[in-house]
Design goal:
Radius of gyration: 18 Å
Strand order of the largest sheet: 3-2-1-4-5-6
Largest sheet: 6 strands, mixed
Length: about 290
Amino acid sequence: MSKESDFGSIGIPLSCSIFLECALDAYKPYIKSIGDETLKIVHEWNNLLISLLKTNKYKSILGKTGNKLLHYTSENINFGNKCVSTAQDVNVQSLHYALRFDKSVRFLRDKYEYDPKLKLCDLGVGFSPLSVVFQTQYDIKDVYCIDIVPEIADIYTETAYKLYGNTPNFISWETLQTMQKKERPNTIVSVGCLPHIPIETQKEYMKQINDKFDNFFLEIKYTKQSQKTNTTNAFSLSDLQDLCLDFENIMDVEIAVKRNAISYLRKFMHAKPNRADFINNCRSLFLSR
């Protein structure tokens, strides 16, 4: 992998969206919640996103590697699929993108079926089409997005508007905290974001989410206590116990952690039985309520 700086400020979010689409196609047997309508939205989203980013306006913030990715994806319709099937790092990372997208979609669908008045916030949205998929398929008006990269709000909003005429509301984390209860989203999703934040800040975010949101779906990095010193921004079992989060009918944190991990780990190992190194030491853990 190239250094993150080679991707500029938006190159990595772009790669996540491009390789997500290819992975949803490559790993269909493991993502039962993603139907043809969702796949169509993701495909159209990427086409419009790529078209917009090809303008010179965004060249500098894509970075060297981000611009290469944009160029090869634009010039070769099979480039993304080839990366997912043969590039070692992309191969496993894209499977992870597909599995977490599937879990996110299933979570939101279940919450919406229980309460159609759902108000959604996507924390650390990047260029993930999750909010657009949900807003489009369920005609949800109250959709909010948060991202610390200033350009993402403009690019995301323009792409979403060109796609279906619906746009999420971009707000800051601070604004979210000051919103009145009747206006504030009752459901928050955050995948691919929290592990990039210092762990003490993650804990503060998670405490506020636990206190203020009825529903949440969060991706964190989890590692064994003995390996904690070697893993940046990853939680141990004792970290989670100290947080006292109320997630998914919890009675015992250790049992809840194991239960939350089973589905993801089983699907990952079935799809990639020879890549246990990707999840052996530090792996994604999805906490929900």
